[in-house]
Amino acid sequence: MLEARPIVVNPDMIVLGGNMRLKAAKAAGLTEAPVYVATWEESKAKEFIVKDNVGFGQWDWDILANEWDAAELDEWGLDVWQPEDATNAEEMDNLSKPKKLADTFLAPPFSVLDTRQGYWQKRKKEWNEIGFQSHLGRENNLLQYSDTILNSSLKNTGTSIFDPVLCEIAYKWFNIPNGSILDPFAGGSVRGIVASKLGYPYVGVDLRPEQILENEKQFTHIKDASDVDPQWILGNSLNIGNLVEGSFDFLFSCPPYFDLEKYSNDPLDLSNLSWDDFNDQYREIIVESLKHLKKNRFACFVIGDVRDKKTGFYKNFIRRTIEAFEDGGAFLYNEMILLEPAGSAAMRASRIFQGGRKVCKTHQNVLVFYKGDHRQITKNFTAIPVMDVEKEAQLTQTI
């Protein structure tokens, strides 16, 4: 049978077709097998690999989606997903162009967002070259205990920094083009400045005047003529109904993780409250903020669970966040894990684990909620256009 259908290899003896035949031959104890050495160009070799496995092969869809041309795969007979919801020829054309998911979506739209990947790190470097200093406006070493915070999110200050790539992804995936953004826990400058550079009107509310002043100072320093000016409002988001006007297209924030970071000595600051008071006010802020979110729109909160300092048990902050959104009429639609590089966690893990069997956290939770009729999503959120790589690459060059 092998003589009738030899194993196909390239000149380097890499198998192009017949991996299972080779495996069976080894299991049968054979030491020699007929091969056909194919001296094809790389494009023809790739075409053969697909065609040889169309009927019976098992596929690594991650590799196919990120490294192969969807149109070619379809032409060769592989049953590739087709965008049935595309409403016109232009959208169909856009969806068939990219060779990698990251070319369209910045990152593959999977439930795990892997910040360790090259495409993520490259984009993050481009954003950081703008000159973010999001830790300014907050005291250094805000962390209250280190085994639950992402080390790679720190800027050598002990203060968490929001990832600008995650920010960009959230805006492009879950906001409408040029849609307005409401951020009830504004904090540092990143979310407002990224919105500005991408053309989204942004309104952020923060309790601390020093943070507002620092954010505005940073934006003034890096402002470009085409930017949409972000607006930072001083106040307590418990009163967000009196602080902001109108309705918004996207609710996006990263709230305090209870007492994980101490932002100020202000008794109204959520990080200074008891757990019960924190939850009551946190829920109310979410409910009131959702009143300013337009119907048939998304909301996204980036959160992480926190441990009780006395017992070490998790407080299930994620569940409480979901319940608060449900109370406000928005329901969980997507749940993603933001996977971060381990950083110094590799050095801390042994001590932390041996000291109490606590694993080091290297992720955050990205919760996406939807308010309204889910049947309207395809109507209001049309196909994401293929990213213009050259245009996007000029982001920092024009500043």
Query: How far from one another are the termini?
Result: 65 Å
CATH architectural group of the largest domain: 3-Layer(aba) Sandwich
User: Low-confidence spans: pLDDT under 50, at least 5 residues?
Assistant: 81-85, 140-159
Structural class: alpha/beta
- Main sheet makeup: 8 strands, mixed
Overall pLDDT, averaged?
A: 83
Tally of discrete structural domains: 3
Q: According to CATH, what is the topology of the largest domain?
A: Rossmann fold
Give the overall silhouette.
Answer: elongated
CATH class of the largest domain: Alpha Beta
Give the proportion of residues in helices.
25-40%
Number of helices: 16
Q: Strand order, biggest sheet?
A: 4-10-11-9-8-5-6-7
Radius of gyration, Cα only, in angstroms? 25 Å
SSE order, one letter for each helix or strand: EEHEHHHHHEHHEHEHEHEHEHEHEHH
Got a strand count? Answer: 11
Strand content: 5-15%
Q: Identify the CATH homologous superfamily of the largest domain.
A: Vaccinia Virus protein VP39
